[in-house]
Amino acid sequence: MSFVTELIPPRPAPAAAKQGLTGARIAGISVLALWALLAAGLVLTVINGWNQDKFLRYGPRYLHGLWTTISLVGISVVLGAALSVPIAFARMSKNRVAGAIAYAYVYVFRSTPLLAQLFLIYYGLGSFKPQLESVGLWWFFRDAWYCGLLSFVLNTAAYQAEILRGAIESVPRGQHEGAAALGISKTIAFRKIILPQALIVALRPYGNEIILMIKGSAVVAIVTVYDLMGETRYAFSRTFDYQTYLWAAIFYLAIVEVLRHVWAFLEARLTRHLKR
């Protein structure tokens, strides 16, 4: 008995636990204070460096770049979601050929950088101009915007396919068996029972993927697409003012913050039946 007692560590005294909690609270307050100081410094930097002429000259370009970024990411996410559905079902299929092809696709696009994929599509396929002209596709691959859209769609489809597959497989097997016991067909059971539960599980990962796509979309500026980062590079090349990138960071932060609140609202709305 004494040997067992020695192996079990004694419970911390209430005072010690309270002291540890106080230390964690102090650390949290210190972190918040640090972020508050950084935010105050950022605000002061923006105010002190305010230049109305630059704002009036480059402000419309920033808005144009912002719209380009939002439209590019929005279209790619929607098309990627449509493409991810057959890929996810192929990954779950018992057909080894379909499963192997889907696995290879997901593996390649999740294991290579988005920038490398963009270069392979824009510069790599662009070197096959005669062949693309012969099949009538050169109009697509000669435009940097379309190449960026294609690379985004293929990239996000791989991630969304894994999100969807994991969400569907997370639904308990008893849901399938219960639907079969009630005589519900597999198609209706999937659409009415399995998929709604899976989408609730996949909601937060989908939000994270969209946020990553918004931040990753800045790579298209390298291939002459004037998105938000492309317009920022243009403004910096004319002014050599580092605050042009500061404004771009503020725009990206605002987009992510709005999306975060929208996703929190959707999650609270869809999971309201799970709360007491």
Description:
- By secondary structure, the chain is mostly helical.
- The chain has helices at residues 2-7, 14-48, 52-92, 96-111, 114-124, 129-134, 138-141, 144-170, 173-181, 186-216, 228-239, 243-270.
- It has a single domain (53-274), classed as MetI-like (MetI-like fold, Orthogonal Bundle).
- It contains twelve helices and no strands.
- 82% of the residues lie in helices and 0% in strands.
Summarize the structure.
This protein has 276 residues and is mainly alpha-helical.
- Radius of gyration, in angstroms, nearest whole number: 25 Å
- Give a quick account of the main beta sheet: strands, pairing sense, barrel closure: none
Structural class: mainly alpha
Shape category: flat
Provide mean pLDDT, rounded.
85
Could you tell me the CATH topology label: MetI-like fold
* Residues in β-strands, percent: under 5%
Number of domains: 1
CATH architecture designation: Orthogonal Bundle
Could you name the CATH class? Mainly Alpha
Order of helices and strands: HHHHHHHHHHHH
Q: CATH homologous superfamily name?
A: MetI-like
Quick tags:
276 residues, mainly alpha, MetI-like fold
Topology of helices and strands:
Elements: H1 2-7, H2 14-48, H3 52-92, H4 96-111, H5 114-124, H6 129-134, H7 138-141, H8 144-170, H9 173-181, H10 186-216, H11 228-239, H12 243-270
